[in-house]
């Protein structure tokens, strides 16, 4: 799975982060996202763009279903299962990139296991 970590905002609300695979600055594969509803902490708690030779298939969310309620000021881990269904193997230049949204990741680029 491709893993992304987030720090949730302090303010309650609905937040979303949108991602796509990239190789040398060119997007490919399905767009994926993480959408959560941030709540106040508990009282006792201190589609796709195709590029020749590169392709991907979204399999499933492996963690954090969309719309899940999470406490503010907490660390989230989102995982997606994405399959390389193209003719070219993914190399070290393939990354997952956050390109929009209000849920800010710890890093806007994430290495893709291959």
Kindly summarize this structure in a few lines.
With 114 residues, the protein is mainly β. It contains no helices and 9 strands. Strand 2 (13-23) and strand 3 (26-39) form a beta hairpin.
**What's the story with the biggest beta sheet?**
6 strands, mixed
Mean pLDDT: 85
Poorly predicted segments: 44-48
How many H/I helices?
0
How would you describe the overall organization of this protein?
With 114 residues, the chain is mostly beta strands. Helix content is 0%, strand content 54%. It is built from no helices and 9 strands. The protein has strands at 2-7, 13-23, 26-39, 48-49, 57-61, 68-71, 75-83, 94-101, 109-111. The strands form 2 sheets. Strands 2, 3, 4, 6, 8 and 9 form a 6-stranded mixed sheet that branches. It is elongated and about 45 Å long. The termini are close together. Residues 44-48 have low confidence and may be disordered.
């Amino acid at each position: 799975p491709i893993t992304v970590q987030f720090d949730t905002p302090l303010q309650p609300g609905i937040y979303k982060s949108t991602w796509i695979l990239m190789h040398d600055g060119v997007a490919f594969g399905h767009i994926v996202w993480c959408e959560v509803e941030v709540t106040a902490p508990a009282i006792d708690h201190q589609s796709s763009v195709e590029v020749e030779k590169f392709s991907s298939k979204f399999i499933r969310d492996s963690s954090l279903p969309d719309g899940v309620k999470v406490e503010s000021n907490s660390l989230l881990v989102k995982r997606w299962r994405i399959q390389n269904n193209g003719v070219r193997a993914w190399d070290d230049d393939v990354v997952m990139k956050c390109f929009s949204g209000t849920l800010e990741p710890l890093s806007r680029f994430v290495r893709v296991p291959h």
